[in-house]
Specification:
The protein is α+β, with helices and mostly antiparallel strands. It has 13 helices and twelve strands. The chain has two domains: about 160 residues, Periplasmic binding protein-like II (D-Maltodextrin-Binding Protein, domain 2, 3-Layer(aba) Sandwich), CATH 3.40.190; about 100 residues, D-Maltodextrin-Binding Protein, domain 2, CATH 3.40.190.100. One of its GO terms (molecular function) is amine transmembrane transporter activity.
Length: about 325
């Protein structure tokens, strides 16, 4: 009889332990229909919504930086869909909540119109770069052109380039700045040609190799300055924002509550010119996959990754 009661007790104890374990698993990780999870990171911060969408425009800094942020967040436990779009859809998708954040807000000047339109639905999470200047630029061998003012009524230069400023995608803030600059500086004979950054760089490289004149809108940080001797034209009217914009990570409202660990990583992320100049050339000058470049950077700089994920992982 004692033996029988002993066996019954063992079975009951085992069942209670099993139920407790199941209950703990349910509390630690539960997922609802919209992809949110109660799972916590090893640092104790909840992942929350595990599926994130990150739009970016294929600009020099934005491409590798976006893939780097995605790789860091995936290392923490998220699934990040990195989507290449144009500038307008990048801003509107984060504002309407169909995307979660972006790392490409140039403020206060370059993206002023987008910020004015969508600021009520967005949050500035983190200023990651200060003094990111924009301007019209020419190769340094164009010794007689040092200011935007030097373009006005410059018959020799104008005819040599068909009075063309070789631009990028139409929705880019720097293109809007350039249209304003053309008005402010009276560049009535000049035409701003829309293309893409890749097409603009191809034309710039071709002209540079032949030491031919060319005028393009450029900005820093940009990998071009590491492989070509370029100069940014003086802008006395400060149409392009003077010393330069600040670059922000901007998120949709509610992301901090929906994905606490991701938001914390974005807040802790840091950036400088040296870092960006390491990321850009492999992607644009060596044609490497930006996802692979991001992974390699993380392997080469574990101290930075640890800093960005402190308290999370």
């Amino acid at each position: 009889m004692k033996k029988r009661f002993y066996l019954i007790g063992l079975v009951a104890l085992s069942l209670s332990m099993l139920l407790a374990a199941c209950g703990n698993d349910s509390n630690d990780e539960s997922t609802n229909d919209n992809g949110s999870s109660g799972e916590k990171t090893s640092g104790g911060v909840e992942l929350g919504q595990k599926d994130l969408t990150l739009p970016y425009v294929a600009w020099a800094r934005e491409t590798p930086v976006s893939y780097l942020l995605a790789a860091v967040l995936e290392d923490v436990g998220y699934n990040v869909d990195v989507k290449q779009v144009e500038a307008g859809p990048m801003w509107s998708s984060v504002a309407d909540g169909s995307a979660d954040f972006m790392a490409s807000a140039w403020l206060p000047a370059t993206h002023a119109s987008y910020w004015e339109q969508y600021e009520d639905d967005l949050v500035k999470v983190n200023q990651v770069l200060d003094k990111a200047p924009l301007a019209l630029a020419v190769p340094s061998y164009m010794e007689d052109v040092n200011s935007i003012e030097d373009l006005k009524d410059n018959e020799e230069l104008g005819k040599s380039v068909d009075w063309k400023i070789t631009g990028i995608d139409a929705g880019a803030g720097i293109m809007q700045n350039t249209e304003t600059a053309m008005e402010e500086y009276g560049l009535d004979n000049w035409n701003l040609v829309t293309s893409s950054e890749a097409a603009m760089i191809a034309e710039l490289r071709s002209a540079y190799d032949k030491e031919e004149p060319i005028v393009v809108p450029l900005w820093k940080p940009h990998w071009v300055f590491g492989v070509m001797d370029m100069k940014m034209l003086e802008d006395p009217k400060e149409v392009y924002g003077g010393d330069g914009d600040q670059i922000y990570i901007v998120a949709r409202k509610g992301l901090e509550e929906d994905a606490p660990a991701a938001y914390k990583v974005l807040e802790q992320y840091t950036e400088d010119y040296e870092m960006v100049e390491e990321l850009m050339p492999p992607v644009f000058d060596e044609d490497k996959d930006p996802a692979d470049v991001a992974q390699q950077f993380m392997e080469d700089h574990p101290d930075l990754v640890e800093q960005w994920t402190e308290g999370v992982k």
